[in-house]
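Much of our argument rests on the idea that a fold can be written as discrete symbols. The record that follows shows the chain in one-letter code together with its fold in token form.
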Amino acid sequence: MRPLAFFLCFGGCAALLPAPSPMPSLRDELPGGHAKCLVVFLPGAGDSAADFTKYRFVEAMRQKGLSVDLVSANATLGYYAKGLLVERLATDVIGPARAKGYQQTWLIGMSMGGMGTLLYSHDHPDEVTGVLALAPFLGDRSLHEEIREAGGLAKWKGPEKAPLASSSYQREVWRWLQAVTAGTEKGPNLYLGWGTEDGLGRAASLLSAALPEQHTFTVPGAHKWSSWKAVLDAFLADSDFTRACGPALD
């Protein structure tokens, strides 16, 4: 796992990275159908849709007895590098899945996929109920220091609202996060988690300071699947997601 690898490839190597259309995905539907909620997983750089089964994310959801359908999107590096992530997710994965009429839609992603959950939610705020971002990539360190030096996200003077673009998406995502956490723009119910030895934790702490305390989970560990699985377990033990997407009583 190289958490910043995708950001380094936004230039000349983008054409070399695969981004097949339609975007592949793996489904795990609730036996018997009629799930309350849709969960879409987005992998990190160097990972794939199959890793959510390999590292027992799907199993954890099923063991909890939740009323959910699960979709693991193979949203690999090429979609980010070519600027196709949001379009392909909407057309190939999330849009078709949501046609079944779920009560809620949640996105869960780590590292690059954590940023992916935010990029999609930025452009589709009416579709996404909530997000669990696991050690998300949140842009350049210089931008984090700018926000920190301003006194935190609430005090930071961000740019004017603008569409996402390759040259400015980092600042726009942070501007949008500021608006969402302040309640001035629509956005998902945000949850955040990371390992205490994770290099991306320092950036995540800037965002967590703007969230309710119970919406942040930290666990021992580094930037790896075992840490993210521990965060997922804590999230499933107590969150708005679990309360809303629990099994039907009838």
